[in-house]
Amino acid sequence: MKYMDEYRDRTLIAGLTKKIRARAGRFYTFMEVCGGHTMAIHKFGLPWLLPSTIRLKSGPGCPVCVTDQSYVDRAVAYAEMEEVVVCTYGDLLRVPGTSASLYDKRGEGCDVRVVYSLLEALRIAREESSRMVVFLGIGFETTAPGSAVGILEAEQEGLDNFCLLSAHKRMPPAMEAVASDAGQLDGFICPGHVSTITGMGIYEDLPRLYGMGCVISGFEPTDMLESILLLVEQMEAGRPEVAIQYKRAVRPEGNLKARALMDQVFQHGDDTWRGLGVLPDSGLRIRPEYARYDAEQRIPVEVGPARENAGCICGEILKGQKEPSECPLFATSCTPVHPVGACMVSSEGACQAYYKYRRYA
Ligand code: SF4
Question: At the topology level of CATH, where does 65-170+254-296 sit?
Fold first, then answer.
């Protein structure tokens, strides 16, 4: 297939759902890990197309949602420093911290700038040579290579007033945490974008250790339905394995150049995830040789204990234990205009997906 319309073809969609219905010999629960998949699933109404034997759950793959409260508090502390410019992607701006969001701080006159790429943050650092520019680096293996390139470019240029506050994370430890905790999942719809960088090797423990199928999926309705069909077929045959449905974008080995850049600048370390807590080796920490570009080393700040908003169940949603509609604040005191938790702020968050596409369902 070549054009977008073909991936949304009604006849193909009907054929795939028919095959899923015919081949699913029992109830199955699959988790879509990626926030982009969550949005697409609800946008295209897949829960209504699938047979009642297939249940989908959202997982911990929205970068903004899993970024823990203490990271936001640290970013807010930087924003309060006159000599610091905080550069961030727009989604993070409105995530509530313990006492304030970056959006609140910007309203108070703090220098918080929304950028569309790390290169913009580097440009600001060149222009504001007397101030320190702190870039908020969040996301998984998808965005970490870009942050690595930024650090290498700053080093090459001798740009001394730029650093990165890394909340970059690795996907496999979170998937293993969910797999070992949930106990009722049959397989994962694996993230397409992450896999373009990592390839398929990062998922190989999941079928082996947990008996779960893994299919790396694209984001169009026929992609996701084909992925679900592949998962059903794996489980019906009793042979869970890692497979690639998104072959037009993902190679088995991933992007070797991007992986090498990521490994050059980052090393694995423990990290805190909203809902999942501290997961060993789940974070991408800046290596000691690049410590001068590490905001935590360069500008140490003390933040108090993080406090989640009362009533928000983002953590349980990210673990697949609850759905957004089970939150008492959903669509009442928590909306995209007045978000209480990260899952409603993010354009890839499960709560925002439900609000946009399933509020009246
Ligand atoms: S609806 Fe709002 S308060 Fe409830 S879990 Fe989602 S983000 Fe948190």
Answer: Rossmann fold (3.40.50)
